[in-house]
User: Fold this.
Amino acid sequence: MTPTPETELTPEQLSKARLRLWLKLLRASGRIEDEVRRRLRSDLDWTLPRFDVMSVLARQPEGMKMNEISKKLRVSNGNITGIVDKLTEEGLTLRVPVPGDRRAHKVCLTPKGEDVFAEHAAIHEGWINGILGGLNSDDIEGMIRRLDQLDLTLDEGR
Amino acid sequence: MTPTPETELTPEQLSKARLRLWLKLLRASGRIEDEVRRRLRSDLDWTLPRFDVMSVLARQPEGMKMNEISKKLRVSNGNITGIVDKLTEEGLTLRVPVPGDRRAHKVCLTPKGEDVFAEHAAIHEGWINGILGGLNSDDIEGMIRRLDQLDLTLDEGR
Assistant:
C-alpha cells in the first residue's frame, strides 16, 4: 500500500489554506456555541455562563478559587463573582473557607448543584451528539488528533 | 486497497467522543483567539474587535449597515457603533448615506482604512500560519472537509 502523496502546495498556498482553516474553525465553534446558548435558554431557562461555571466546578470537587474559575473560563473576576453569588443564593454553589488563609475561600457545587448540573450535562451531551452527528468515529479521531497537535504548537509558543 | 474499517464505537462512546471533540474545538479556537488578541495588542497596538470590524468591511467594498456588521460578528449593535465611531474619527471608516432611505447609512473603509487593514491582515496571516504550522496540507484539507460537514448539519438544524 503506497502512502498517499501529500498534496503539493506552495508556502503561499499553504499559508492561505491555514488562514481559511482558522476562519472555519472560528465560525464552527461560534455557531455551535450560539446553538448551545439558544437551547440552554429555550429548553432549560439557563444561561451559558451559569452552565460553564457549574461545569468547571463539577470537575473540581475540592472547590476552586474565584480567580481560578475566572482564568479557566477566560472571563473577568467580576462577572464570575456575580454568577457565583446568584448560584449560591439558589443553593447550587457554596463558599468554603481555605484553611490557613482567612481571607480566601473556594467555591464548590452543593449536592443540589451536582444534581442540577448532572441533568443539564446529560441534555447538553445529547445536543452536541446531534450537532456533531454528521461526523463518524474516524472523523472525530482525525480532528481530535489535529486539535491536539495545534494545542502542542500553542504550548511551545509560550 | 481495502478501505480502513471504521473504528467500532457504541452509540454511547460515540456521543462521548463527539462531546470531547467539541470541548477540544472550543479550547483550540479560544486559545488561538487569545493569542491573536495578545499579538494585536503587543505588536500592533490594536484590538481584536477593531480588527474584526475592519476585516468584515474589507470584504464588502460597497459598505455594510451597522446591524449587518453586528450580526456578522455576533456582537451587540451598541458595541459596533462605538468601534465604528472611533474608526471614523481616525479616518479609517466612513459613513455613507443609503439612497432612498434618509435615516439609514452604510459603513465602509476609507482608502487609508484599506491600507491599514491590508497591512494588519498580512501580519495576521503570518501569525496564523505559524500557530497552525504543525498542520500540513492533508491535515488542513481533512479538517476543512469536516468543518464544512458540521456547518451543513447546523444549516439543516435551522
User: Anything to note?
Assistant: Chain B is about 70% helix and 10% strand. Chain B has one domain: 27-156. The two ends of chain B are 40 Å apart (CA to CA). Chain B touches chain A through 57 residues (CB under 8 Å).
